[in-house]
TrEMBL record:
<feature type="transmembrane region" description="Helical">
    <location>
        <begin position="179"/>
        <end position="198"/>
    </location>
</feature>
<keyword id="KW-1133">Transmembrane helix</keyword>
<keyword id="KW-0472">Membrane</keyword>
<feature type="transmembrane region" description="Helical">
    <location>
        <begin position="255"/>
        <end position="272"/>
    </location>
</feature>
<feature type="transmembrane region" description="Helical">
    <location>
        <begin position="134"/>
        <end position="150"/>
    </location>
</feature>
<feature type="transmembrane region" description="Helical">
    <location>
        <begin position="48"/>
        <end position="74"/>
    </location>
</feature>
<feature type="transmembrane region" description="Helical">
    <location>
        <begin position="80"/>
        <end position="100"/>
    </location>
</feature>
<feature type="compositionally biased region" description="Gly residues">
    <location>
        <begin position="375"/>
        <end position="389"/>
    </location>
</feature>
<protein>
    <recommendedName>
        <fullName>DUF2157 domain-containing protein</fullName>
    </recommendedName>
</protein>
<feature type="transmembrane region" description="Helical">
    <location>
        <begin position="306"/>
        <end position="325"/>
    </location>
</feature>
<feature type="transmembrane region" description="Helical">
    <location>
        <begin position="281"/>
        <end position="300"/>
    </location>
</feature>
<keyword id="KW-0812">Transmembrane</keyword>
<feature type="transmembrane region" description="Helical">
    <location>
        <begin position="210"/>
        <end position="235"/>
    </location>
</feature>
<feature type="transmembrane region" description="Helical">
    <location>
        <begin position="155"/>
        <end position="173"/>
    </location>
</feature>
<feature type="region of interest" description="Disordered">
    <location>
        <begin position="365"/>
        <end position="389"/>
    </location>
</feature>
<feature type="transmembrane region" description="Helical">
    <location>
        <begin position="112"/>
        <end position="128"/>
    </location>
</feature>
Amino acid sequence: MIVYDKRMLDNQILVDEAHALCKGSFISKEQKKFIKKELPLFRSQDNILVRIGFFILGAMLYSSICGAISIFGIGGENAYFQICFYIFAAVGFAGSEILAKQNFHNHGLDDAFILGAILNVGLAIGITTEADNPAIIAFFITVTSIFMFIRYLHLLSMLVFCVAFTKFLFYLMFEFGDIGKAILPFTAMIFAGILYFVTKKTINNLSESYYYNGLLLANSFCLVLFYLSCNYLVVRELSAELLGTEVKPGTDIPFAFFFYAFTFIVPAVYLVQALRAKDRIMLWISFLAIGFSIYTIRYYYSVLPIEVALTLGGLVLFTIAYFSIIKLKEKESGLTFKPDRINHSDTILNAEALVVASTFGMKPEAKPQDSPMEFGGGGFSGGGSSESF
C-alpha cells in the first residue's frame, strides 16, 4: 500500500538515527555526512520555512493546472461546476502519485497536492449533497485523509483524519437531537479513550516503524480530545451554544461536580503517568492541561486580581522547579535533570546498523612491515625462554 520504496524508507530512518547519534556525540559529523552521502534518500526538506515556500509553489502549480482545465470546461457552466471539483481532486491524486514516484516526500510540493486532493474531495461531496448533511462530507474527508496517510506516510493527513473523524462523530450525535447533544461530552470522552488504547496497542505491536509517527500523533490527539471533552469550560460553553442552556446566578450545568473534578483530576493523572512512563509528549500535554484548568476556573471565578494570581503562580512554579532540580540533578538514571544526549528513546536500536554502514567506506589499515627482530625461541639476544638461550 505504501507507494515509496521501503529500502529508501529504511535509509531515511538510518539517516535520522545518525543525526540523533551525532547530536548525542556518539558519532562524528564526518560519519554522519558519510552515511547521508552513501545512502540514497528522498527529496525532502527539513527546513520548515523552505518547505512552506515549496508548498506555496506547489499550490500555485496545482491551481494553474486546475485553471487550465477550467478553461476548456467553463462552457458547460452549471454542469461543469457539478463535476469540476472531482476533476480537481483527481489532479491532486495524480500529482501526489507522480511526485511520490519521483521520490518527493515531506518536500512541500507533495504537501500541496496531497492536501489539495483532500480539500477538493470535501468540496466535491459538499456540492453534490448541497451541504445538507455535513456528516457525509466529514466521512469522505476521513476516508480520503487516512488513505493519504497510509499510502504517502503524510503526517498532516493523519491530523486531518483525526479532526474529520471527530467531526463525523459529532455530526452523528447531532442527528439524535437534544439528547445526542446532551450526551456529546461523554460520547467524545469514550471515543477518545477507546481510540487512545487502540493506537497505543498498535504502536506497541508495530512491526514496521513507517507508521510510528502518524500513530503517535493520533495517540497524542486522543489525549487532548479526552481532556477537552469533559472540561468544565468547554462543556458549559457548548451547552449554551448547542442547547441554549442559560446558567443563572446560583445555578450550574447538570453534573457540574463531575466536570469540575474531571477538569483537575485528568491533568494530574496525565502528569503522574507521564513521569512513570517517561513519556515526554504526555508530560507537555499535562502541563498545558493544568494551565487550561487554572484558566477554566478563573474564567468563572476570579478570586484574586490577575496580577496577584500570576505572581503567586510564578512563585509556586519556581519553588517546585527549584526543589525538583535540587533533587534530580545528581541522578544518573530514571527521572533526572541531566540533559538527554539523545531525544528519542529508541535511537540506540539502530546504532548497530549505523556502525556497519559507516564502516563500509573505510579503507583497511596498511599492514605494518615485519620487524627484522624475531622474538621467541631464544634465537636472538635471549628474546625467548627456550633451552637454546
